[in-house]
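Bug report (template v2)

What were you trying to do?
Predict the complex of my protein with flavin-adenine dinucleotide.

What happened?
Run completed; filing so the output is reviewed.

Input:
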Amino acid sequence: MQQALAQLAGQLEGELHYDSLLRALYATDGSIYKAYPLAVALPCSVADLKKLITFARQNHTSLIPRTAGTSLAGQCVGEGIVVDVSKHFTKILEVNVEEQTVRLQPGVIRDELNRHLQPYGLYFGPNTSTANRCMLGGMVGNNSCGTTSIVYGSTRDHVIELHTVLSDGSEAVFGPLSATELEGKLQLDTLEGQLYRHMLAELSPAEVREEIRSQYPKPSIHRRNTGYAIDLLLRQQPFDPAGKPFNFATMICGSEGTLSLLHPGRSRGSIDDRISR
Ligand SMILES: Cc1cc2nc3c(=O)[nH]c(=O)nc-3n(C[C@H](O)[C@H](O)[C@H](O)COP(=O)(O)OP(=O)(O)OC[C@H]3O[C@@H](n4cnc5c(N)ncnc54)[C@H](O)[C@@H]3O)c2cc1C
């Protein structure tokens, strides 16, 4: 394995560490848990993420995405390769004042985003206690919220579009889809297409939908990461014709890094008008 890691290190634009010091530093997060990772990667590019995915598949190990590592339930602790995107994926790419949206990379710190937005009178509402450290990638992973969430909602309520790399190394952008766009996705001969086909087929039987609606926690409980939020997909089209357009990003929020890697592309979210609230 050491040889394979050395080879991988030589292929990455970013860094790969597998010495005992770095492994020890990344053996914990904000939780009580501890496990020594196989290695710690600090990727620089989408190409690096793809190489890490290929390596993990070939060597039967896992990837543990990480931003600030303030998670409380061991989300960033594991024996695979920790993929820390907090060093290189830190750009705010675009603020659209008119639409009140922002495009950014997953390693942007929540309070730094708000300092950037201050001159526009705008604000990213979810106010996690760790806001001066935690990053948007981790907030998406944990569907983070905080003291202002009764007014502004949780992170999930703000996510519009996520740019991701899937487990086969393919890229997929998950965002709101019209009926025609959804039909187009269902035809794709890729893992992305397979995900749409699988999810729609699983959620189609009326008895499955009824079971989910009756057994999931009350929709009024905003912050809950006890499983994937498939109940929220049922409140979207085509399951609820009066609902919002189908958007897989709704479910990726709160999936704790288990479904895809958020990459340094142009993931988009909404921001709030702090003054008028
Ligand atoms: C003292 C304290 C107070 C806290 N208070 C709150 C609170 O008020 N509200 C709240 O919601 N939480 C709270 N938390 C939990 C935690 O701080 C938040 O959930 C925070 O938003 C996590 O952000 P992070 O950058 O540290 O994410 P991390 O801990 O690094 O990651 C969180 C999850 O996101 C995944 N992830 C990270 N980057 C990516 C990526 N690029 N691609 C895919 N998945 C990714 C990780 O794998 C992980 O599952 C608190 C924690 C502490 C220690």
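What did the reviewer find?
Residues 140 and 253 are 5 Å apart (CA to CA). The pocket of flavin-adenine dinucleotide is lined by residues 29-30, 64-72, 75-76, 85, 106, 128-130, 134-135, 137-139, 141-142, 144-146, 256-257, 261-262 (CB under 6 Å).
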